Amino acid sequence: SMIGEDDEDAVSDSEYEPLKADVLSKKLAAAAEGRGPKIIARQEESSEEEDEDEELTPEEREKKKQFEMKRKMHYNEGRNIKLARQLIAKELHGEEEDDKDEEMRDAADVETMSTEAAEHG
Protein backbone atom coordinates (compact mmCIF):
# COMPACT_ATOMS: atom_id res chain seq x y z
CA SER A 1 0.00 0.00 0.00
CA MET A 2 3.00 2.31 0.51
CA ILE A 3 3.70 2.32 -3.23
CA GLY A 4 0.07 3.07 -4.04
CA GLU A 5 0.10 6.04 -1.68
CA ASP A 6 3.26 7.39 -3.25
CA ASP A 7 1.69 7.21 -6.69
CA GLU A 8 -1.35 9.08 -5.45
CA ASP A 9 0.84 11.85 -4.05
CA ALA A 10 2.70 12.18 -7.32
CA VAL A 11 -0.55 12.54 -9.25
CA SER A 12 -2.04 15.12 -6.89
CA ASP A 13 1.18 17.16 -6.99
CA SER A 14 1.21 17.33 -10.78
CA GLU A 15 -2.49 18.23 -10.86
CA TYR A 16 -2.04 21.00 -8.33
CA GLU A 17 -0.11 23.46 -10.51
CA PRO A 18 -2.58 23.79 -13.41
CA LEU A 19 -5.44 24.02 -10.94
CA LYS A 20 -3.69 26.85 -9.14
CA ALA A 21 -3.12 28.69 -12.41
CA ASP A 22 -6.79 28.31 -13.32
CA VAL A 23 -7.94 29.70 -9.98
CA LEU A 24 -5.48 32.55 -10.31
CA SER A 25 -6.66 33.46 -13.80
CA LYS A 26 -10.27 33.51 -12.59
CA LYS A 27 -9.27 35.85 -9.77
CA LEU A 28 -7.38 38.07 -12.19
CA ALA A 29 -10.34 38.22 -14.55
CA ALA A 30 -12.67 39.20 -11.71
CA ALA A 31 -10.28 41.89 -10.52
CA ALA A 32 -9.88 43.26 -14.05
CA GLU A 33 -13.64 43.71 -14.23
CA GLY A 34 -13.57 45.68 -11.00
CA ARG A 35 -15.11 42.95 -8.85
CA GLY A 36 -11.92 42.56 -6.85
CA PRO A 37 -11.11 43.45 -3.22
CA LYS A 38 -10.50 47.12 -4.02
CA ILE A 39 -14.22 47.95 -4.15
CA ILE A 40 -14.87 46.23 -0.83
CA ALA A 41 -11.98 48.09 0.80
CA ARG A 42 -13.32 51.43 -0.39
CA GLN A 43 -16.79 50.73 0.96
CA GLU A 44 -15.43 49.83 4.38
CA GLU A 45 -13.31 52.96 4.70
CA SER A 46 -15.57 55.60 6.20
CA SER A 47 -15.20 58.58 8.51
CA GLU A 48 -17.44 56.82 11.06
CA GLU A 49 -14.64 54.36 11.81
CA GLU A 50 -12.56 57.06 13.47
CA ASP A 51 -15.31 57.93 15.99
CA GLU A 52 -15.92 54.28 16.84
CA ASP A 53 -12.37 53.89 18.11
CA GLU A 54 -13.18 55.99 21.18
CA GLU A 55 -15.69 53.39 22.43
CA LEU A 56 -13.50 50.34 21.85
CA THR A 57 -11.65 48.43 24.53
CA PRO A 58 -7.87 48.12 24.04
CA GLU A 59 -8.46 44.51 22.99
CA GLU A 60 -10.99 45.48 20.35
CA ARG A 61 -8.75 48.27 19.12
CA GLU A 62 -5.90 45.79 18.70
CA LYS A 63 -8.13 43.41 16.74
CA LYS A 64 -9.24 46.26 14.55
CA LYS A 65 -5.66 47.36 13.92
CA GLN A 66 -4.78 43.82 12.85
CA PHE A 67 -7.82 43.71 10.57
CA GLU A 68 -6.94 46.99 8.90
CA MET A 69 -3.35 45.90 8.38
CA LYS A 70 -4.60 42.76 6.67
CA ARG A 71 -7.02 44.78 4.61
CA LYS A 72 -4.23 47.09 3.44
CA MET A 73 -2.16 44.07 2.46
CA HIS A 74 -5.14 42.70 0.56
CA TYR A 75 -5.58 46.02 -1.21
CA ASN A 76 -1.93 46.12 -2.25
CA GLU A 77 -2.31 42.58 -3.52
CA GLY A 78 -5.08 43.85 -5.77
CA ARG A 79 -2.81 46.56 -7.13
CA ASN A 80 -0.16 43.96 -7.91
CA ILE A 81 -2.64 41.93 -9.95
CA LYS A 82 -2.00 44.15 -12.99
CA LEU A 83 1.67 43.25 -12.90
CA ALA A 84 0.83 39.58 -12.46
CA ARG A 85 -1.59 39.69 -15.39
CA GLN A 86 1.13 41.10 -17.60
CA LEU A 87 3.61 38.41 -16.72
CA ILE A 88 1.02 35.67 -17.20
CA ALA A 89 -0.02 37.13 -20.55
CA LYS A 90 3.58 37.15 -21.73
CA GLU A 91 4.15 33.57 -20.62
CA LEU A 92 0.92 32.28 -22.17
CA HIS A 93 1.02 34.09 -25.51
CA GLY A 94 4.68 34.88 -26.01
CA GLU A 95 5.82 38.19 -27.51
CA GLU A 96 5.04 37.21 -31.13
CA GLU A 97 1.24 37.28 -30.95
CA ASP A 98 0.75 41.03 -31.08
CA ASP A 99 -3.00 40.90 -31.70
CA LYS A 100 -3.69 39.19 -28.40
CA ASP A 101 -1.31 41.51 -26.60
CA GLU A 102 -3.25 44.51 -27.90
CA GLU A 103 -6.44 43.07 -26.41
CA MET A 104 -4.76 42.46 -23.08
CA ARG A 105 -3.58 46.07 -22.97
CA ASP A 106 -7.09 47.32 -23.54
CA ALA A 107 -8.37 45.13 -20.70
CA ALA A 108 -5.84 46.55 -18.24
CA ASP A 109 -3.57 49.60 -18.25
CA VAL A 110 -0.55 47.59 -19.21
CA GLU A 111 0.63 49.55 -22.24
CA THR A 112 3.23 51.76 -20.58
CA MET A 113 4.63 48.89 -18.53
CA SER A 114 4.99 46.51 -21.47
CA THR A 115 6.67 49.15 -23.66
CA GLU A 116 9.13 49.85 -20.85
CA ALA A 117 9.81 46.15 -20.52
CA ALA A 118 10.42 45.92 -24.27
CA GLU A 119 12.92 48.77 -24.15
CA HIS A 120 14.83 47.24 -21.27
CA GLY A 121 14.87 43.84 -22.93
UniProtKB/TrEMBL annotation:
Biased composition (Basic and acidic residues): 58-68
Taxonomy, superkingdom: Eukaryota
Residue span of region Disordered: 29-68, 88-121
Swiss-Prot/TrEMBL GO biological process terms: regulation of signal transduction
Keywords: Protein phosphatase inhibitor
Gene Ontology molecular function terms on file: protein phosphatase inhibitor activity
UniProt biased composition (Acidic residues): 46-57
Family membership: Belongs to the protein phosphatase inhibitor 2 family.
Protein name: IPP2 inhibitor
Source organism of this protein record: Certhia familiaris
